[in-house]
Amino acid sequence: MGIEVPALSAVIARLADPEVHLAAFGGVVHPLSLIVEAPIIMLLAASTALRKDWDSYQKLRRFMMVSGAALTGLHALVAFTPLYDVVVSGILSVPPEVVDPGRVGMQLMLPWTWSIAYRRFNQGVLIRFGHSRAVGVGTIVRLSADALVAGAGYLVGTMPGIVVASAAMAAGVFSEAAFAGIVVRPVLQGELRHAPPAAEPLTLRSFLEFYIPLAMTSLLTLITNPIGSAALSRMPQALASLAAWPVVSGLIFMLRSLGVAFNEVVVALLDEPRSVKNLRRFTFILAAATSFVLLLVAATPLAGLWFEKVSALSPELSSLARTAIWLGIPLPAISVVQSWFQGAMLNDRRTRGITEAVVVFLIASGITLGLGIAWNQIPGLYFGITALVIASTAQSLWLWLRARRSLEAINARDAAVREVSAV
What we know:
423 residues; mainly alpha; 2 domains; 19 helices
């Protein structure tokens, strides 16, 4: 799924006014769509951790439908009313030429939020009952829909880049949601329907105690995207930085996505006895491998190949991007480590520390971006990536402090299992 934004950015870069439309996509449409969906993005983790019987499924499904409808209404308010100008022209203060393309993109992205809620809800069922391969197939469905719409827009050649990219992204996530809804049906009627009732039935109070910290976590995490857009808009080379941002961050996210996906793996597999040792070893291997790949790209001609040939950036934007990628080398490894600690706390149902860590991230990011605005001597793209590294490191340290209790409990469980096996 991490290839989606780089692929769509490459299409925008090959259509008219690429700098403006890249800036609208990466600086307005994508970050605002993400912040609207933030309260339901953790449905995958909640579904994986909590949905163990038919009763919990029905309760969580009701929550998904109501919250998805409410957030879609919020997206419509931002996209189709004067609230858009307040947010984009006033708060984000993006360059004037970016405002109108961003509005069109937000309007086309209206199906996004509900589709995300439905998709992640059903993917949680698939992961919980061992059908994670279907999640990967769903990603292929999504990318196929992206390619179909984006390819048609590119061949027509007269459509604005923001229209092509936004329509493709909306079509992709809608197609993936529909696929998830189809493939989950046999699981619902079979394994889930016949699963034994949970020892402790899921109540509204217990769900909210578990989920609200997660929702706040995703909200606080994703709010850094529009904050980043606002900061980049107030630093040198604002338009160029906003245009290069989706390409650079998209490349980094392709590798970070392996670490992000590891979160649900940890949640699901820590239930298995004596799983800690193998999961910890895999954490170190995956962290080293993903950041090494990014280092390899930055240090070799692969960077020029990616930014100039694949992403079709202009020489000016490519130069910005090639320098920025060096600053982001630690990020893939950091994502893996964060998923290890977060997964342990999610498995232990101790989610408050995750929210606290995101607050730490937000503070560190805000301070770093504020220094960049005050200094006003370095292109915003560089400060944006630097802020992401500093804030993510601070977040990881806090997660480590708060996850120790959960990991100690899991280690104690495994020790007890070993003792029983020895007897």
